User: Fold this.
Amino acid sequence: MDALSSLLDGFATALTPVNLLWAVLGVLLGTAIGVLPGIGPAMAVALLLPVTYGLEPTGAFIMFAGIYYGAMFGGSTTSILLNTPGESAAVVAAMEGNPMAKAGRGAQALAAAAVGHFAGGMIGTILLVALAPAVADLAVDIGAPDYFAIMVLAFIAVTSVLGASRIRGLASLLIGLTLGLVGLDQMTGQQRLTFGSLQLADGVDVVIVAVGLFAIGEALWVAAHLRRTSGRPIPVGRPWLDRGDVRRTWKSWLRGPFIGFPFGAIPAGGAEIPTFLSYVTEKRLSKHKDEWGKGAIEGVAGPESAASASAAGTLVSMLTLGLPTTAVAAVMLAAFQQYGIQPGPLLFEREPDLVWGLIASLFVGMVLLLALNLPLAPLWAKLLRIPRPYLYAGILFFAAVGAYAVGGEVVDLVILLFIGLIGFGMRRYGLPVLPAVIGVILGPNAEQQLRRALQISDGSVTGLVDTPFSVTVYVVVLLILAWPLLKRFTGRGRAGRAGSGGVGGSGE
Assistant:
């Protein structure tokens, strides 16, 4: 009851004209920034830090929250329409959203994503209000073996359900893990795969890898096949979801938050793992398995809902523990410190107006995003009517600008082109792109957690399975790996019984 009364006070703060204006400005800025590949919400918040120094803290953080959610939606817009993720959390949206757009259902994919963001954000923020202390306690108890087990689950789950074969999925994952090794060893400081280049010592940025594999690889692939395909523009299609679409997506919208929110609250979590796991879950539960890879709407709705809920989960660790789990949370933590405020267990007591005003503004921001972007879905989808030579030339331009903006180094453009050629080769030989991106995102973290777990156990491998949580996760991994074999043997057994029954019947 205390939380509810505090939340009502927060709405009184968030709905003042000035703070409402900051929320609208944040949502608009975030959506515009998310559309540009490479310029993610973390960079946007960081760039605005000096500008907001003179603002009142509550208004500044309400605007930052609007940028956070708006950029996630903007990133999924280009991911769906142009196969160009604006940020890493939008990578999964391209897997089914882009085939939908190519089939003339881009507006439906964008509408499913918009409603998914709204549902995920709303449910995630409600869970933030109700469960913040409990989730924070759970996050504190999770150790290095548990983190490593979760990342192994993400690797195995995604490589098992993508591509024509598991071998190709694992090959793609290996490419990503190799790219993730580039740079300095986090524990020893030794250079790995830098070839003596100081610019590579910091590693390859995830955004450059995602934009290179998706945007540059796609542009090169389209350019190589442009003369063999018709140059007719892709139809936009009808603008709204019909009853069949809603019937297929409403469960995905509701499942996503319960996958995304806990992962957002876990340190070293973020939106990447839950969006991958949501995609896998929706594919397993779908009754339309033949559509996956060709434009299954559940593959957009579930991951987008999970991504939005994970953003609310991120705020749990940041506000209650002072522990940032994503780049955006880290920049927002710096903003708190800029105002002389220290997030932690006492923040709710010392700064109740700021905290509850920020939480209430999340609800306001979700409504604003839905109201702004749902009617604009057909308009965004009309981007696909641009002739493909001009469209992909624009994609290459914005991809290059985004990659250069990440570090301001010319070498980043060379790396972008190199990774784009890898993406082209992966399309040529049928390797799925997503496992490679997962390998780059999670590979360094998985290595770090593995080495920490082994250090804690003095090098004993049993240290990786010394918690109930990690054992449970590994059991799930074994079930995923064993399921095709079990299915094959049970299928042979049924075929054998059917065959013997048929022979016996003919002999009578």
